[in-house]
Amino acid sequence: MDGNALVSLVKSFLDPATTAGMLIIPSAGVLYIIVQSLKWYASDEQEQQQNPIGKKIKKALILMVVLFSLTAILKIFGISV
Questions:
Q1: pTM for this one?
Q2: Phi and psi at residue 56, in whole multiples of 5°?
Q3: How many other β-carbons are positioned within 10 Å of the β-carbon of residue 25?
Q4: Which ranges in the chain belong to alpha helices (H)?
């Protein structure tokens, strides 16, 4: 099998995926945080104390940063033909 053909095939899938990831990851993260915040504000005071919103937001932000960083690294160091 031709090595350049394999690199070209991988790049044809990787480039659109990284571009989409750069848009989808932050958007989905912000949407998740908004939905969780609205659910938390809609709950009663006892549930708010039992389930603090800070932990959920912190986990979401960490996940967003890690996934976005991986996507950015793939974009920066993409396969060069």
A1: 0.79
A2: -65, -40
A3: 20
A4: 3-42, 45-50, 53-76
